[in-house]
Amino acid sequence: EVQLQASGGGLVQPGGSLRLSCAASGFPFDDYAMSWLRQAQGKGLEYVSGISWNGGRTYYAETIKGRFTVSRDNAKSTLYLQMNSLKPEDTAVYYCAKTRSSQPVAGGAYDYRGRGTQVTVSS
Known about the structure:
Radius of gyration: 13 Å
Strand content: over 45%
Order of helices and strands: EEEEEEEEEEE
């Protein structure tokens, strides 16, 4: 059974940082590209970032480019999202997701998505 558990969210002031983690199990983690998506209240799902199976290729949405960094530790089957210079508009539930490819997928298409972690950016 594929399991994806995101953690690390919380309340942070504008300009602050958070590091999200996603523990994966139930599939060969190092075979697949992984994605981060987010959904703000009342809005649709947004593809934020993707990373190839070995971390050699990454994708960032324009809204977060230069502020967020995606990485992975295949030995630990864990995906990360380092979020710096956070803005109120980054407030959302963040989800990690497994793709069906070894490379980041356009639009962030996925086959499994875990339960999210809430990130709230507010003073």
